[in-house]
Sequence to fold (669 residues):
Amino acid sequence: MATGQHCVESPSVLLRLEGVEKVYALGDGVEVRALRGVSMEVRAGEFVAVMGASGSGKSTLMNLLGCLDRPTAGTYQLEGRDVSGLSRNELAEVRNRTMGFVFQSFNLLSRTSAKENVELPLLYAGIATKERRERARAALERVGLADRANHHPNQLSGGQQQRVAIARALVNNPRILLADEPTGNLDSRTSVEIMALFQDLGRSGITVLLVTHEADIAAFATRVVMMRDGRVVDDRTQLPLAAVPGPVQNDDAAGTGGAQ
Amino acid sequence: MNLWVTFRVAVRALLRNKTRSGLTALGIVIGVAAVIAMVAIGEGAKVKVAQAFDAMGTNLLIVTSGSSHGGGMRGGHGSMPTLTWGDLQAVRSDISTVKYAAPVCQTNASMQSDEQNWTSNVVGTSPEYFDIRNWPVVKGVLFGTADLDAGTKILVMGSSVAKKLFGEDVDPVGRTVRLRGSPFTVVGLLADKGQGPMGQDYDDVVVMPVSTFRAKIQGGLGQFIPGVIFVGATSAKTTTRTGRDIGDLLRDRHRIQAGLEDDFSVRNLSELAGASQQGTQIMTTLLAAVAAVSLLVGGIGIMNILLVSVTERTREIGVRMAIGAKPRNILAQFLVEALTLSVIGGLIGIGLGILIAQQLAASFQWPLLIRPDVIVVAVGFSAAIGIGFGLYPAWKASRLDPIDALRYE
Fold:
């Protein structure tokens, strides 16, 4: 397989974009060029924050990286395999096996227990019931919510809901975790906790790709990619800020995160 | 993702909205129940009519004598005796498709037992009469040819007469009944026949040999039969042809020239029964059609709810797709949801329909007839409705773009 070949020349390159463009046709001949030739490589274990103003193309980039969308031009190689031309079904499989998604608004199924929410990706992977239960429990344990397995989302705080979502993203043992503004709906203290969790996952070998517009969130990443007008304008590695959740210092910091 | 898992996902989704799922299924419940109950009513009515006609006799033809006329007045069928004993013999022997032929003379007469008196229909006939009318005795015996030749003073009676003269559950066999001053021995009690198509009581009758009838009850006119001839054809198929043959034979015997009015008439009861059957068949079809419309409305209800559900759960669909659901998984989930609703609705509907049919059958005293094919068709139809009306919403859901679906507010 092609993977072997790539492993030889650059052992740790997980994904590679080359001249990727994305054009949306709005009808009446009007086109929006969301990405205008993006080329980048991400190595396994990196913690990449994609930053940019709204309209900079960072969400489009994330959708492409997450195999939710296909590029108009250019190639996207994931684990050495070109995925830019795959069908909807093949993309769904790639997402199921390789990706984990975390969203700004958590997107848990309502009136469904945390456990069942976490089991969902395994359901589509065709995993047997017993193994599903075990892996869902293990994933919840990893995010520190083993005792809330039977709670429904409306019985959990925002931070807890996001952790259930992270457990759901992790349950399939993905190589890549994509997080779209994961702290956008959380208070600053809970945000730091979530970022600590991401850093922890990064250290365990999972590649984390994070979209954010907040510089203090991007500071936790090992690499920051700046987008503007559909192009990468800055790409630098950095020494990440250690996310150490501090003690509750005052009342307003307790917020939603304090419910645990 | 196998079917069982899809089914569980679908059921879980349905249970998240119990009230709405219940109301949606209710449309199918009512539809299926209506179809089953209506068809059962129609079938019950049909059998009831068929039973009433069967009670008169199988493959029955009735030959009546002609009309008297004097001073411009015509007396109607049977008012002038024209059928002779010779005609009866000829019908019996000359037409191959005639299985039985019996003279039937009747009048009303009062009769007395030791305890009671009653006025009833008295029939004088030959033993073939019981074959034509499919009428066995439950106690005692029928009279035979020997009694016919000898003019024995015996009779068999219907259950209604027995009740009036001797009381409930009393065996009348061997008892004596006085009729027009003569004592008659009861030799048999006829089986219950119930009501005729016009509501007459078939069991309110006594039957005796026609020779006895002529000697003791009502004298005859020599060669003429003071009544009608009942004819039983060999099969339902030959009944109509037998009627025509009898007409030809009697026209020939009575020397009626072509173009002149017959002095007798042949009535075919199976034709009458057929017309009556057709009436109930039309009614059944009409009722079933109305019920089918309600089933269709139930199906549209399912589609409506599913369309709302797809819109409402757009984000859920987006999430499912993002974490690896293929379009066909989403399609299957919504299809199975529709199918589950309609099949559960269908099953409850069958139960309800049978219950309604039972109640109606009990209150109309109809036989309860649940046709298994109707149940199969109703369930199949409700499943088809589930798939048919679920397909479009499910297809719509599966075509959603995961990015748009995730962003949907």
User: Anything to note?
Assistant: Confidence is low (pLDDT under 50) at residues 1-9, 248-260 of chain A. The longest strand of chain A covers residues 13-27.
